[in-house]
Amino acid sequence: MQRYFFHIRERNELELDVEGVEFLDDAAARCGAISAAKEMVVEAVVGDANIDGRQLEVMTAGGDLVAVVSLQSVIKM
Length: 77
Hints:
- It contains one helix and five strands.
- By secondary structure, the protein is α+β, with helices and mostly antiparallel strands.
- It has one domain.
- Strands 1, 2, 3, 4 and 5 form a five-stranded antiparallel β-sheet that branches.
- The termini are far apart.
- The relative contact order is 0.26.
- This is DUF6894 domain-containing protein.
- Pfam families: DUF6894.
């Protein structure tokens, strides 16, 4: 298991995930990020917040970028 961090970027601001989550591999971490982004979209809709420009940046403990998941990309219309 490897620790991954889901940092939240909103335009030029970056909110660091200091805890991280353990996943088996990069693919599992990407799936976890997609699920997390979907939850964030639901929270934004309920809270009447804007998701424009918000994204999750998935990083390994070593600092490697694994994936970038925009909140808009997980909405299916």
